[in-house]
Specification:
It is a single chain. Helices cover 9% and strands 41% of the residues. The protein has 5 helices and 32 strands. Strands 1-28-27-26-25 form a 5-stranded mixed beta sheet, with no helix packed on it. The longest helix has 15 residues. It is globular, with a radius of gyration of 24 Å. It starts with a strand and ends with a helix.
Amino acid sequence: MKYILLLLVVLWSMQVHATTGPGLPADSVAATLTTLPAFRNLKLSPDGKRVLMLRARGETYHLTVLDTVARTNKLLLASDPEQFLFEWCSWANNERIVCSIRIDKVLNLAGYGKKQLRTEFTRLVAINADGTGYLQLVPEQKHSGNYRDSGWMSRVQSDIVSWLPDDDEHILLSLIRKDPFFPDVYKLNIYTNRMKLDTRHRSGILEWLADRQDRVRLGMGIEDGNLRVIVRDGDSSRFTERTPGFLLTDPEPGFAGFAEQEDQVYLFSNNGEDKSALWLFDLKTQRMVRKLLADDRYDVRGPLYTSERGRPLMMVRRREGAELYWFDHKLEAAFNEVAAALPGEKTLPVSVSAELDSLILKNSGEKMPDTYYYYDVARQQLIRIGADYDVAAGQLPERTIYSYKASDGLEIQAYLTLPLQGQGGLPTVIMPHGGPHARDTADFDYLSIVFAAAGYAVLQPDYRGSAGYGQRFRAAGYGQWGKRMQQDVLDGLDALIAE
């Protein structure tokens, strides 16, 4: 690859209109950042010729499709926050799109001692890329009036087990329907919404995984307070118990997909160590084959990209921020050459086509908004899709890692965002994450950037108990809600004041 052809193409005719924050000049960076990021959920069609995305307009997002060949864009579905919001959208094949939408709904729970409960529901809808063929995918159940038929069983309808890439008409969907707690797996027709039971529910099993042949092969969940893993034996309908002993003490194991060999899977586990790593695990022998990726400082987690046969290619892991780890070094060299043509210091894949011949890239850097590009490998062609915010490079506040000692000596990692002007004596916002088993990173965070652009310093501490720093750090937060966890937050403020 001798050069990259960079095409700056105007793809959008629609403008984003949003209300800015109170008391902020309309033309200020802070006011711009109070609007929604321009793009969400960019996904390539399997053949790489189209890009679907959720495009900001006003105070919500609309489903739009970009045709990279014809260089046109089409608005397919407009969401109304009073009616529904988009959760995500994805290609089921090269022509059909499936979206999960979120709605508020009243639930009848008379059998549970309450007459009504207002809660969130998800529903699956499908539409063709040309805007035709709109359909709600899961038929509503007919209820008998019994509390077990209250509608709770079909509240969540967005758990896709497999997109069935070799079957253009169906997907596999995990759905709580026959049992009020444990999901069955259905084969769902995305053109007619007809469903056929594929795998019945099992007690304690909450999550189902399909193998490379798109068979439901593995179930995982909790029963009597203990982890439970079951595995299907080949093509039979029989599942056997296969719960590895080391997973019983793992606070957060996770399966990342099936590997090249039929009975091997990629597994996130600490395997008795402090930090979680990525392992190759054999379901039959119940043994780890080898450790694929580990980190001395952080737990290894993130999306793993594999070839069609299951060979690992790359992984987007979370350290101080999201970063790439490559298993395929030939692919790495080609990717790095493309990334070198972009202005920001960090480039990550957002979506890849089935044949890895097209990619959506997110490029970011210090004091610049995230910007998205489409790259055609065969043509060596790079097309700018757009940036999340219309802000020039260098106008955004800077985010840095800020570490300090808690009052009992434990080291706490935090993220500090400072306004472009001003050093000492700044008004300060302390913004701890929720969870509590969650974490912040140094990647772009629009809320902290908004505050900093308005003149505030923002501190986001990963207090004890936060995820991502190993089991010992996580366990240090057990029983400390309202105690040492909160003190860690206050200690961060004290550390800033002392400086």
